[in-house]
Amino acid sequence: MDLKPLLGQHHVSAITANAKENYRFYTKVLGLRLVKKSINQDDPSVYHLFYADERGNPGTDLTFFEIPRAGQTYLGTNSISLTSLRVASDASLDYWKNRLEEYQVDHDEIQTKYGRKTLAFRDFEGQRLELVSDQLNEGVAGGKPWDKSPVPVEHGITGLGPVKLTVPNLELTANVLVEAMGYRQKASFLEGEHNVSIFETGEGGTGAEVIVEERADLQRERPGRGSVHHVAFRVESEEELRKWINHLKKLRLPNSGFVERYYFRSLYFRDPNGILFELATDGPGFEGDESFEHLGENLSLPPYFEDQRAEIEAKLKPLDTKE
Predict the structure, then answer these.
(1) Tell me: the pLDDT tens digits for 279-300?
(2) What one-character-per-residue DSSP string does 247-296 give?
(3) What domain range is 50 assigned to?
(4) Would residue 297 count as lying in a domain?
(5) How much is the pTM?
(6) How many separate domains does the chain show?
(7) What is the CATH number of the domain that holds 99?
């Protein structure tokens, strides 16, 4: 491909039914920084919350759309079934096991998966999460935890790790990842009776892997609160993003074309198993409308929504993010 490789994960966007409790959990328990309190630009009546490292560096964002009436998630295929979060070391997982127990968070035991130590857990809505140790990581660098977090910096979450997709037909997703997106297959094996493949891009490592699990025995997932909406992958610039748009057109892969998100520029498309992928630029970032010291404290609206601010704020339930 006449394209630079994708750089790894950019962000993962999920669904919550309760922005207030979501904010409490991800900042007070997980210690992430809310770097932007904004709106879903496709539905300005709901919040879009961005949690990340100290300044929302690309590859560190876990974001949520608040949909107050979101129903229960019925787990299954055609889904982004696990989001992992990076920590510095195996010792950090011991810290986190104790912390999750202290806050009565549902979790599994520490185990070794795909050559790394991991600790799986669920948030208050059943969002499927996993902490993954970077002790042996030699790929994409992580971010920098916020020094005002309740979690000590040495154990803080440094970004997104591997994202897991569960699909009824692994080959269909593999073809898109390899042929259309330039990933390379790193491993392929049976996990129980099910085929699993691991793909990586760019520098590889924890922050640039996609795990695909084939489960033809499951029903299609019915998303709701605690499910993932889409995963985004990093493109270094707008110029490069426009090359990707042309590339997907040549492949006749249906896509959104260029989408302005203000904090980054995007392109959306679905793989043949129906999973929503986004390509997003590394910049401009989150400090264009707020200073580093005050990120996430007020409702931020892209300039093209400012003339609707009064109407938008009237529809949103107040959410105090200055405490």
Answers:
(1) 999 999 999 999 999 999 999 9
(2) HHHHTT--B---EE-SSEEEEEEE-TT--EEEEEEEEE-S-SSS-GGGTT
(3) 9-315
(4) yes
(5) 0.97
(6) 1
(7) 3.10.180.10
